[in-house]
Amino acid sequence: MVYDYIIRNGIVIDFQRNQFYKKDLYLVKGRIVEGDPSADGAEIIDAEGKYVLPGLIDMHAHYFYGGNNLGINADILCPSQGITTSIDAGSTGTMNFDAFYRNGMLDSMTEIKAYINLIPEGVKAGYKRGECCDPDDMDCDQILAFFKKYPHAIKGLKLRIAEETTKGFGLEPLEKAVQIAEKIRWEGYPCVLAVHCANLPEDAPISGILQLLKPGDSYTHLYQNLGETIFDSDRKVRKELRDARKRGILFETGNGSIHWSIPNLTDAYKDGFFPDIISSDAVLQFIWKKPSFGLLHAMNTSLLCGMDELSIMKAVTYAPARALDMADEIGTLENGTRADVAIFDIFPCKQEFFDRFGNRKESERVFVPLMTLREGKPVFRQSFF
C-alpha cells in the first residue's frame, strides 16, 4: 500500500498516560491508519526530534469576519499556529447565527464550531456598554431550535458576565443560562456553558458563579486582572476554585489581550493551579499584535510562567477535544481518527514577553510550529522544515 503521507520518527504523546514515545504516522484519505513500516508514502515527512501533535484546538476565539468588530478570518490565523479546529465563542446569537454559518463556517478550511450566545444579537465588545444580558431575552425554545438545526456545528452556549453586560441583574442571567443548558442536554445535545468571568460586577461574585456551574461547564478568563480575581489576600488561589474543579468545572485561560497578566499566571502556577484548557480569545483588533495575538502566544506565556510542556500540549489538544465531546475524532492521533496534525519544536529563545499591565519577563524557550496538516493535507509549513 502507498500512503499519502508518512510522518516518521516524531515524538508522539499518550495524553491519557502522560507519556512520550516515538511513532510513525500513516495518513490515507484524511485519516490516520495502521501502517506498514516497509511501505512507501507519496511524501515522507521526517519529524526526528520534533513533537507530532494532534491538530491544536483553540476553544475560544471570534470568527464572524465582516459581521462584527471582533471577527477574524480563521484561515489567516489558524494554520500557521498549528490550529485545525477552533470554537467561535458566542460571536452570534439566534438573530445572526444563520449568517455566520453560511458566510463563515461553511467556507472555512479551518474547522469552526461555535457556542451560540444566549443574547440574540451575540457579543458586543469594545464599547462602554456590551450586550445586555437580560435573562428575559434568553429564549430557550429559539436556542434549542438552533441546536436541532445545527447539531454538528453548535457545541455550547456563551454568557458574558461583566460590569458592562450584567450589572444590576446579579446572578439571574447565569441562573437562566444554566436552566437552558440543562434543557439542551436533556434533549440529548452536548452543551458546554462557557462563562466569561472578567471585570465582574459586585452582584455577581466568583463564589456565586462557581456554585451555579455544572460539571463540564467552562469558567473562562481564569487569570484575568480586572476587579475580583481568583486570589486571596496572600496571593493563593482561593479554595472555592479548587472545590469547583473537583466537581468537574473546567478552567480556561481565554487570554485575549487583557485577560491575563504575568504575575497572575506565575503565582497561580507556583500554587499548582493550572488551566484545564489554554485558549486565545483572539479578536480582529489584536491579530498579530503583542502582547497577545493567538493560541501560540498563550502557550508561550504559560511556558514562560511555569507550566510544563506536556501539560500545555494537552491543554490545547486532548483536553478541549474531550470537553467538546469530540475526542473520538480529534485531539488524539489514534488510528481511525482524522488526520489533523501539528508538528512542533521547542526552541531555546531569549525573548521578552510583556502584558498590558506593565510586567515583563524573558523567556528561555518557546513553542515553534513547523507544519500543519488538515484532514491529511498540508496547510502550513515553515520554510526551514
From TrEMBL:
Any GO molecular function: hydrolase activity, acting on carbon-nitrogen (but not peptide) bonds
One of the Pfam families matching this protein, by short name? Amidohydro_3
Task: Please state every residue range assigned to the domain named Amidohydrolase-related.
Answer: 257-353
SUPFAM superfamilies of this UniProt entry? Composite domain of metallo-dependent hydrolases, Metallo-dependent hydrolases
Q: Outline the extent of the Amidohydrolase domain.
A: 43-70
Database matches in PANTHER family: DIHYDROOROTASE-RELATED (PTHR42717), IMIDAZOLONEPROPIONASE AND RELATED AMIDOHYDROLASES (PTHR42717:SF1)
Q: What is this protein called?
A: Amidohydrolase family protein
Q: Which organism is it from?
A: Hominibacterium faecale
